Amino acid sequence: MTDAELQQLADLVHAHIEGRLTLTQREALEVAIEAGGASRRIIADLLRDHAVLHWDHVGPEAQANGIEQFREGVHPAPESATRPIKLKRALWLPLTLAASVALLALAAGMLIGRQVAEPATFATLVHADAATWGGGSLPTAVGSRLARGKFRLEEGLATVKFDSGATVTLESPAEFEIQDAMNASLVAGTAVADVPESAHGFRIVTPSARVVDHGTRFAINVESDTGATRTHVFEGLVEVEHPTTDKVVQLRTGQKNRVEGDHLDPVSLGPVEERWSAQPATVLQRGREWKLISTRDGRGKDGYTASVINEHTSTTQLLVKSSEQKSGPRRKAYLGFDLSTIPRQNINAAELILTFEPTGWGLASAVPDCEFEVYAITREELENWDPNHLPWASAPANVTKGNAVDLAAARLLGSFTVPRGSRKVSSLSKVKPCEISSGKTPTVR
């Protein structure tokens, strides 16, 4: 231990003895006691030395006025009520050690007291969907009471209900910090807040903005690449404040804005499906016994068809959607694999693997679990579809009304469910080799 570290421990012990420990110093002393070893021995030595010096100073007074008065810290009583107690020198050592032990126990008691006493809590973790947690200081079990602290949600969704009545649903990946029942911080990711009248004034602070609610439902996203804050109000009123310029804009139902750096965007109308930041796709790894074949290999191909052409298109993602509305929109994806490089007799098992990636549209917390079905196109004449031109009316085995598939031209291979909020890889492993060895085209709906 260095001289500087020894001096720091001495300063902490003296501050404790004199009753002037700050919160930071108290925490530092507790850490040193927890560490044990040399740190704890030095603290004990310092407390013992103080006890010896203290006894040397007050010992004569204790002998003159009585040990009971010294222990209680009271003034001498009248002579008629006192009878001086003479202490033998042999008792000094036990009393000195007792004082040392008492002082050491008092210091250790700070740690013990801290472990027993429960910190003030302000919220409850009420729900989690397919949640995977990263680092943080808060508990992540559903039902846990939450004090001041933070956690990071790596996967899935999580809902926190504050004692003020405000409810915040986090969409992964997100980093969130609780301050108290009316204040929280969103460091990264997306949060959807539902704030009743009881929580008017509820505030969420981001690295680039302060969002103050006045009874509403709204969403906040902190962009991972720029740190900018986007706010979209679904119902009610919020105020978005710039943290350094103190400029404020008010957002009402259907309105949005963006804050980045020194710039506070004006109010604009938000679309039905707000676009948030998309996340990178997962890279898949398999063992040597597996041969990975993607739609990019050989004569492979992929594409999707849509019942309605709107602003939601993608050249890098296969979009799949089922709408509850009769008018749609609906989307189905098509996959073609070139299996000509693998002899059929060498195929012992097959697995169709799909990596799900957020589109950047809408909010994961607004949809339920997603159920998918995978079909194999069985008619040879339908195999020559063009991935760059897949009209809804002529897409292979497609039933144009509703979300069905023409079973006269396709066969169901299986189905799977992606839990609400999950972004993990999903697979369909119950595919027989004979069902894929002829180059059949899977369609996903």
Q: How many strands appear in the DSSP assignment? A: 21
Shape: elongated
Mean pLDDT: 75
Backbone CA Rg: 34 Å
The helix content is 10-25%
Main sheet properties: 14 strands, mixed
Q: What is the N-to-C order of secondary-structure elements (H for helix, E for strand)?
A: HHHHHEEEEEEEEEEEEEEEEEEEEHE
Residue windows where pLDDT falls under 50 for at least 5 positions:
66-104, 111-116, 272-283, 430-440
Derived structural class: alpha+beta
Beta-strand residue percentage: 25-35%
Number of separate helices: 6
Question: First CA to last CA: what distance?
Answer: 66 Å
Secondary structure layout plus pairing:
Layout: H1 3-17, H2 23-35, H3 37-65, H4 67-72, H5 89-116, E1 121-136, E2 145-147, E3 149-162, E4 167-180, E5 183-195, E6 203-205, E7 210-213, E8 216-222, E9 229-235, E10 237-241, E11 248-252, E12 255-260, E13 263-264, E14 268-269, E15 301-306, E16 331-336, E17 350-355, E18 370-377, E19 410-418, E20 425-431, H6 433-436, E21 442-444
Parallel strand pairs: 5-6
Antiparallel strand pairs: 1-2, 1-3, 3-4, 4-5, 5-8, 6-7, 7-10, 8-9, 9-12, 10-11, 12-13, 12-14, 15-16, 16-21, 17-20, 18-19, 18-21
Helix pairs in contact: 1-2, 1-3, 2-3, 2-5, 3-5
Brief account:
With 445 residues, the chain is an alpha+beta fold.
Q: What report would you give on this structure?
A:
By secondary structure, the chain is an alpha+beta fold. It is 21% helix and 33% strand. It has helices spanning 3-17, 23-35, 37-65, 67-72, 89-116, 433-436, and strands at residues 121-136, 145-147, 149-162, 167-180, 183-195, 203-205, 210-213, 216-222, 229-235, 237-241, 248-252, 255-260, 263-264, 268-269, 301-306, 331-336, 350-355, 370-377, 410-418, 425-431, 442-444. Strands 1, 2, 3, 4, 5, 6, 7, 8, 9, 10, 11, 12, 13 and 14 form a 14-stranded mixed sheet that branches. Helix 1 (3-17) runs parallel beside helix 3 (37-65) and helix 2 (23-35) packs across helix 3. The model is unreliable at 66-104, 111-116, 272-283 and 430-440 (pLDDT under 50).
